[in-house]
Design a protein that fits this description.
Length: 641
């Protein structure tokens, strides 16, 4: 595989300019981990210094960083920049879905807006430690709401705006949120027709902890407002003071919960705490994107996912960044939208998902070349492996061969990027996240938990040591945290990903080794989708697997058996799609539904997914060992697709 050296004229503004420089950072961090992380932690303003840097004990699944340190995340993302003379600096450039509308918010304005809303939360009875749910699209109020929670010590739980009302209900109930912040309608293309408040109305009565719904008026639609429960954003802050002193938080006080899919049907509430998470998000944002004070940064993620938390809210804002936040989609009003925004706002650092690149690449270069993209300096990708065609398109057509591509590997659980090229230092190879960041110690293990030392041999990717941004627990279920991450390879953090190391020591992620799919960079559990399909009328059983999909990376392929006497039909297919949309959201809809008379199961009843995978991918010449199947005849019916 060809290696690309750091582009000739790339000059790191934060001063990391050579592979030697990286190697010495990595060596220092390994030799004296505490001093390394202590020096990194100084980038954050602490009200009180920590007493111990790292109190982690992996053997007990106990993770603790910067013990007894006191800080506030919102203070670090706003106030301290104002104290440093950056009050008038633009924090957010909100680019509306409508190409003609954008609004700038300075750090001074952000402080005012966050403080007003924080006081509104207090007036509504929200206290330190209370959980607040945020269900919104990409509008400034979403970020203001997150920072307002952090300011008063409330724990936010953001639910991606495309999740259905059922999914919202389950998340609100799991963490017993007292207050929900949403908007009237979300926008899609020309229309404000995503029924966000209506989704909340449908389930509010089934959420015993929920007392208040705050609604941003984004559209001009008339909305139902329940007396005593619902209030508009403007009424909520009406009469509040625009000063709100930040709550003093312990480093290990929770900052947020973010639900993510695992191998069971129930999403996990990944819990991150304040000190370590903020240190890590801030540090990696600067290091990986070579973020410099004059840069304009744009991450196209949504705050509903971890990328939005770490690389839209806490990382960039703690670094006093100026960034674009974008309400729209890459193909509205046309396929040039991303590049038009890059030109308009003179973006220097651009961070997106391979799935978006694949979709845009397919539409041809004319959508790109009509815009001036010369401001670009660093290009990033996240969420799934980037394949060679889109990597080269990104490098050649978007970056004009002058921008390093940072392929960042990380997870909701890791809080921040663990592996990525550092732009001025590490030569890249298309499809590899290259090397671990300093202080991160990955290893590849075999089935028995032994370290694989041979090169190019795939095994399980683990981390042998903690880092400050690591999740602390599964909210309300510490045993699940232990079982999921610390039982497969005791003494290590188990990532759930497969990987191998090549001859240059570069890491290649081969995908999930558990029953988790990665559809357009969105993480979805097969068990969740199977459960949702099973709820459609007439369905007896379903098995879901991921298959190679040209745009989505992985598409969802569902094998469905129907109840006796029920015949397959287009109506049942439609009902299945509607049911999945209702229970999870449209992003979890299967791309292919195949009806079958039975599923391939072992005698103990376990579905043999590897057979289904081969059938879905048309690799049916060799299905492997099928001797353990309880009923081998199902294979013939499956092949008749
Ligand atoms: O399988 C890996 C894949 O996405 C998973 C994490 O998903 P999530 O928690 O939703 O976080 C996504 C955004 C950080 C990982 O276990 N993944 C993430 N980044 C990459 C990746 N696979 C390959 N290359 C990447 N750069």
């Amino acid at each position: 595989m060809k290696k690309y050296s750091v582009p000739k004229n790339f000059n790191s503004s934060i001063g990391h300019n050579s592979l030697d420089n990286y190697q010495s950072l990595r060596k220092n961090a390994e030799q004296d981990s505490n001093s390394y992380w202590e020096s990194v932690a100084k980038r954050i303003d602490w009200f009180d210094q920590w007493t111990t840097v790292n109190n982690t004990d992996y053997s007990k699944a106990h993770i603790e960083w910067f013990s007894n340190g006191k800080l506030n995340a919102s203070y670090n993302c706003i106030d301290r920049h104002i104290e440093n003379g950056l009050g008038e600096k633009t924090a957010l450039i909100w680019q509306s879905n409508d190409p003609t509308t954008s609004t700038n918010v300075s750090y001074n304005e952000l402080l005012k807006k966050v403080s007003l809303f924080a006081n509104g939360l207090k007036r509504a009875g929200i206290k330190k430690g209370d959980r607040v749910c945020i269900y919104m699209q990409m509008i400034p109020e979403a970020i203001i709401a997150m920072l307002a929670c952090a300011r008063i010590g409330a724990v936010h739980s953001v639910v991606f705006g495309a999740f259905s009302s059922d999914a919202l209900k389950n998340r609100i109930n799991d963490s017993e949120c007292k207050l929900l912040i949403t908007q009237d309608n979300g926008v899609r293309g020309l229309k404000f027709d995503i029924p966000m408040k209506e989704n909340a109305d449908k389930i509010a009565d089934k959420c015993p902890s929920l007392k208040t719904i705050v609604m941003v008026e984004r559209s001009e639609n008339d909305m139902f407002m329940k007396e005593g429960r619902d209030i508009t954003w403007n009424q909520f802050i009406d009469g509040c003071s625009s000063e709100c002193p930040p709550e003093v938080m312990d480093a290990e006080d929770p900052l947020f919960i973010l639900y993510t899919s695992g191998s069971t049907g129930k999403p996990k509430g990944v819990m991150h705490t304040t000190g370590g998470y903020l240190v890590y998000a801030s540090h990696t944002h600067e290091l990986v994107f070579d973020y410099h004070q004059d840069d304009v940064y744009w991450c196209t993620a949504d705050i509903g996912w971890i990328t939005g938390h770490s690389y839209i809210v806490y990382g960039p804002l703690s670094n006093a960044a100026t960034q674009v936040i974008f309400e729209g989609v890459p193909n509205y009003p046309d396929f040039g939208r991303f590049w038009q925004i890059v030109e308009q706002h003179k973006i220097n650092v651009f961070y997106t998902a391979p799935t978006a690149l694949r979709a845009l690449m397919k539409e041809g270069d004319d959508w790109v070349t009509k815009y001036d993209l010369s401001s670009l300096k660093v290009l990033g990708t996240v969420g799934e492996p980037i394949k060679s065609p889109e990597w080269h398109w990104y490098f050649n057509v978007i970056g004009n061969e002058k921008c390093p591509i940072v392929d960042t590997w990380w997870q909701t659980e890791t809080g921040g990027i663990l592996m990525s090229p550092i732009p001025g230092c590490i030569p890249t190879k298309p499809g590899s996240a290259t090397l671990p960041l300093p202080g991160i110690i990955p290893e590849i293990l075999d089935e028995e938990g032994k370290v694989i030392t041979e090169r190019n041999t795939t095994g399980y990717l683990v981390m042998t040591q903690s880092w400050p941004g690591q999740m602390r627990t599964v909210y309300g279920d510490h045993q699940r945290f232990i079982d999921t991450y610390f039982s497969q390879a005791p003494g290590n953090y188990f990532t759930g990903d497969g990987a191998y190391i090549d001859d240059d020591g570069y890491f290649w992620i081969t995908g999930r080794v558990d029953d988790v799919l990665n559809v357009s960079g969105h993480r979805i559990g097969t068990a969740e989708v199977e459960g949702a399909i099973g709820a459609a009328s007439g369905v007896a059983e379903a098995a879901v697997i991921g298959y190679n999909h040209e745009i989505k990376g992985e598409g969802i392929y569902a094998f469905v058996t129907l109840m006796t006497g029920v015949a397959s039909s287009e109506e049942i297919k439609k009902d299945i799609l509607d049911t999945v949309t209702k229970i999870i959201g449209p992003h979890a809809k299967p791309s292919v539904i195949q009806f079958c008379s039975g599923l391939p199961k072992t005698r103990s009843g376990k579905i043999m997914r590897r057979i289904l995978k081969k059938i879905a991918q048309n690799e049916t010449e060799d299905l492997g060992d099928i001797s353990t199947l309880a009923d081998p005849s199902v294979i013939d019916s499956l092949l008749e697709k």
